[in-house]
Amino acid sequence: xxxxxxxxxxxxxxxxxxxxxxxxxxxxxxxxxxxxxxxxxxxxxxxxxxxxxxxxxxxxxxxxxxxxxxxxxxxxxxxxxxxxxxxxxxxxxxxxxxxxxxxxxxxxxxx
Length: 111
Description:
Blueprint: H1 6-15, E1 19-21, E2 35-39, E3 45-51, E4 57-59, H2 68-79, E5 82-91, E6 99-108
Antiparallel strand pairs: 1-2, 2-3, 3-4, 5-6
């Protein structure tokens, strides 16, 4: 397989060319619930996972990188929940030809 970058993986996941699948059968740590492995179009597992909480793509190869990065990502996510913008658009009359946008931030946890 040729070298593939995280942006390409995200695009291929979004298009359906790649898909996510379950954790490795031997993975028993609770934080694995927050990750999905990624399969290419031929259903081969590629050395990346996606965080189901924030959609970040992370490198993962059990033999080369291990799972420490995944565990740290999970632990940091627990401490610092994702802040997502909630944008509301209000249209005013055509007389003034203006649009007002209200943006507020809200957080959501993952457990």
